[in-house]
Write a structure and sequence with these properties.
By secondary structure, the chain is α+β, with helices and mostly antiparallel strands. It is about 40% helix and about 20% strand. The chain has five helices and two strands; from the N terminus they run H-H-H-H-E-E-H. The protein has helices at about 5-10, 15-20, 25-30, 45-50, 85-100, and strands at about 60-70, 75-85.
Length: about 110
Amino acid sequence: MPTEERVAAFGRQQVVEQLDSLPLDDFQQKFEGRFVDESYSFFPYELLRPCTDANLALADRSELVLFEDVGGRFVCRLLRRYDQVPFGEQKADLRRMLGCLPIVCLPTDRS
């Protein structure tokens, strides 16, 4: 679902106003956690890289959050952290949930 459709369907008035007032790339970065290239970064990557741990990129870490739409409000029903859980086990757990829960949407990312 494109940003504009998602905001129209689920966004509160303040979010709609932000979408209307910002360039799309800026809105996606600020409100949707979209990663952008270095030209948008306040700090250059050369300054940030020495402050990071390359080993963190190798960790098997994920989080799963399930919401239920209750009368137009989203209620959080599950928060699950997969810390050092191999991807295969994470995938199997998601498959079990998809098989028994009425999950409508399961967006994922590779970050």
